[in-house]
Amino acid sequence: MSKKGKVLLAMSGGIDSSIAALLLHEQGYDVVGITMKTWDYASSGGATKETGCCSLDSINDARMLAVNLGFPHFILDIRQEFGNYIIDNFVEEYIAGRTPNPCVLCNTHIKWEALLKRADMLECDFIATGHYARIREENNRFVVSRGLDTNKDQSYVLWGLTQESLKRTIFPLQDFRKSEIKQMAIDNGYVDLANKSESYEICFVPDNDYRGFLKRKVDGLEERVAGGNFVDRTGRVLGKHKGYPFYTIGQRKGLEIAVGEPLHVLEIVPETNTVVLGTKEDLEEQQMIVGKYNLIKYASIPDSMELLTKIRYKDAGSMATVSHVNDKLNVMFHSPVSAVAPGQSAVFYEGEDLVGGGIIERQKPILL
């Protein structure tokens, strides 16, 4: 047994988890690799060739790397638990008129839970992933902070992790930028890894067509929701849409409606199959409510804090006053922000540190 301990590493077959394996191996950990098969595209009803972390090629790539470095590798089939929770939630959220973030739920409720469970079975001290984020212990808390590479930082999708999960988590890439990881792959003879394309789509919607995915998953969905009204903020009918689940807050393209000025989706009202449209200025809001929140840096926060708040993954963030309202958080932005989408994650930062996050709820209806 290594003095460093035994670590169970999640391996997708991509460059990040592969170099994470190399680093852990070089640092003297006893590494055990595990590749989680979360889905297969055939079960989703699609015809596109499997790509990404769940393809046979990616699984084989992960296994071959483990063989080359001389550590064991396992394949874990969690398609049923993934589908029952992540895919079902994804569909239910769109049917409810919200925009889900399945990667956050998967990390929180599926991947870390599955890793920790198998880590115990395999007598591993730690678990590790190839995320670009940093972790440290401070004031008896395990604190996540943004990765060094701001273009690759993945702390946004980690806000739901518990202290118990973080206590056993290692991020081997936390001190590196993506360019350094690519160079490391080349220097160690893994040129194919360095040149391997990366997918940024939702893993179970690899063609990036979530509308087609919903149609395949819900029998008769098109017939049930087609023909609803586009309305303005006063309720005036502007035209007919193709079904409220097929639109997202802020959307401008694909509305197929002309009223003399560009319009955006402001609100989705599933109860009446209505989609509210308005101008870009109408998209701006200064307040939102966040529920189902989880704190990382602090066990609790004061009555209010000034925090940088991100409302989507690629959002640069805006300063806001965050305060408690019963079991939810009230977020008052210092300046209006655009396209607040219920169902997405609001994630809070204090400097580089991840304070926590939660699920966005609408503060008030858009209809006047």
Write a structural description.
The protein has 368 residues and is α/β, with parallel strands linked by helices. Among the domains are: 149 residues, Rossmann fold (3-Layer(aba) Sandwich); 61 residues, SH3 type barrels. The protein is built from 9 helices and 17 strands. It has a 6-stranded antiparallel β-barrel with strand order 12-15-14-13-16-17. Strands 3-2-1-4-7 form a 5-stranded parallel beta sheet, sandwiched between helices. A hairpin with a 2-residue loop joins strand 5 and strand 6. Helix 1 runs parallel beside helix 2. About 2% of the residues have low confidence.
At a glance:
The protein has helices at residues 15-26, 56-69, 79-95, 102-121, 163-167, 178-187, 191-195, 210-217, 221-225, and strands at residues 6-10, 30-37, 73-77, 126-128, 133-138, 141-146, 169-170, 229-231, 237-240, 264-269, 274-278, 284-295, 304-310, 318-325, 328-338, 345-350, 353-361. With 368 residues, the protein is of the alpha/beta class. The N and C termini lie far apart (67 Å).
Walk me through the topology:
Blueprint: E1 6-10, H1 15-26, E2 30-37, H2 56-69, E3 73-77, H3 79-95, H4 102-121, E4 126-128, E5 133-138, E6 141-146, H5 163-167, E7 169-170, H6 178-187, H7 191-195, H8 210-217, H9 221-225, E8 229-231, E9 237-240, E10 264-269, E11 274-278, E12 284-295, E13 304-310, E14 318-325, E15 328-338, E16 345-350, E17 353-361
Parallel strand pairs: 1-2, 1-4, 2-3, 4-7, 8-11
Antiparallel strand pairs: 5-6, 8-9, 10-11, 12-15, 12-17, 13-14, 13-16, 14-15, 16-17
